[in-house]
Design a protein that fits this description.
This is HipA-like kinase domain-containing protein. This protein is an alpha+beta fold. The protein contains seven helices and ten strands. The structure holds adenosine-5'-diphosphate and magnesium ion (MG).
Length: 269
């Protein structure tokens, strides 16, 4: 189970992505990026954030810590922005919180070099979860103190929008042509050899166990939240086995020579 905290102050919207997450403070005095259950993409975005985020962490990637954030919409009453006001009103109860990374820079593939092994691990992981939201246009990675962090897994596991066809996703390919790390020569087969054996039923089940029941309840075709969790485990487990054989990467390309000093120095101050 994720730690449960309560939002105490809405600070500001983060307008970079599409879902309008907000920076909030909570009763543990930690700043969080709040992802709203009432956002347009719905609660499945939050389910994907938890399962993929926890799985990524278990596989050794840097992912900001996750909590559930209880929201009383009253904290947004003074919010002048209509869109934010609506989001807060529609999101009473359990939302997702992600530890805010201070002084983090958005990943820029022209300014930061990733070695082929790390690029391979990230591309393989994105192939596993079918993440369509880590392109060079919208990398959804942050750099803090010279280290790369993964964020925003909300647009992955598309199969959870149609569970009846989910089993077919075990064999579907992953197009990484536009992936933010495609230009770094990602070593996907090596990453698969290292990571796929770690993606056991137990590991995925642990990640799925962290999803609050309220986001899984009343899923059509399932009797209980645990039955939905098992469906996530099965699809990811099946996909892990051979997905590396079906990753499309662009041919050729010269990776850049080095990360400029200001990227690493600036972030570690
Ligand atoms: N944990 C975090 N720490 C610092 N900044 C963050 C964090 N999470 C998100 N952000 C910032 O907020 C933006 C939007 O968040 P994101 O999770 O990508 O949501 P979406 O794209 O769905 O709107 C990110 O591009 C990033 O600039
Ligand atoms: Mg985003």
């Amino acid at each position: 189970m994720l730690t449960e905290v309560t939002a105490t102050r809405y600070v500001t919207p983060l307008r970079e992505g599409g879902s309008l997450p907000g920076l909030v403070e909570a009763d543990d005095l930690v700043p969080y990026v709040m992802k709203f259950t009432g956002a347009g993409q719905g609660r499945k975005t939050l389910v994907a954030e938890v399962i993929c985020g926890q799985l990524a962490r278990a596989l050794g990637f840097r992912v900001p810590g996750l909590v559930t954030l209880d929201l009383d919409p009253v904290i947004g009453l003074g919010e002048p922005d209509q869109e934010v006001q609506g989001l807060l009103k529609g999101s009473g109860g359990t939302n997702l919180g992600m530890r805010f990374l201070p002084r983090a820079l958005g990943f820029d593939p022209l300014a930061y070099v990733v070695d082929p092994a790390e690029a391979g691990r990230i591309v393989w992981f994105d192939a596993l979860i079918n993440n369509v939201d880590r392109s060079w246009r919208n990398p959804n990675m942050l750099v803090q103190g010279g280290e790369l962090w993964l964020i925003d897994h909300g647009a992955s596991m598309i199969w959870h929008h149609n569970w009846r066809g989910a089993h077919a996703w075990a064999d579907k390919p992953y197009d990484a042509s536009d992936h933010a790390l495609a230009r770094f020569g990602p070593e996907v087969p090596a990453a698969a050899a290292e990571l796929a054996p770690l993606v056991t039923e137990e590991l995925i089940a642990e990640a799925a166990a962290d999803v609050p029941d309220v986001w899984l309840a009343d899923e059509p075709g399932f009797d209980t939240p645990d039955a939905v969790r098992r469906a996530y485990v099965e699809t990811l487990r099946a996909r892990a086995a051979t997905i590396h054989e079906r990753v499309t990467l662009p041919a050729g390309g010269t990776p850049p020579a080095g990360t400029p000093g200001w990227v690493t120095e600036g972030a570690s101050r």
